Amino acid sequence: VQLQASGGGLVQAGGSLKISCTASRRTFNNNGVGWFRLAPGEEREFVAAISWNGGVTLYADSVKGRFTISRDNAKSTVYLQMNSLKPEDTAVYYCAAALSSYGSRRLNDYRYWGQGTLVTVSS
What we know:
Largest sheet: 7 strands, mixed
Mean pLDDT: 96
Strand content: over 45%
Number of helices: 0
Low-confidence stretches: none
Number of strands: 11
Oligomer: single chain
Radius of gyration: 13 Å
Structural class: mainly beta
Order of helices and strands: EEEEEEEEEEE
Distance between the termini: 37 Å
């Protein structure tokens, strides 16, 4: 499964951005999907995850209430709506397909990774 992340860009603090992750195969629809981010000088960290049917979602405490993960299996696409963005949200955001039907907070639970999309939040 190949994953293509897109939609990153430059936004001012307090603004919103929606990034997408599209898969090359419909079998993606059976996988949990997660978003992770990597900021300069930091380790890759979990952001959000969603189960195969969208019924279960997980969020990092740092984004809870501001970010929303969703999916459209008809389009084999997972979205991350990011509101009330802060400069500390600046990072390359990666999507990943999990080994199971449910998402996870752990990197090792993901098998397929996209190339990342850069989100920059200016103060």
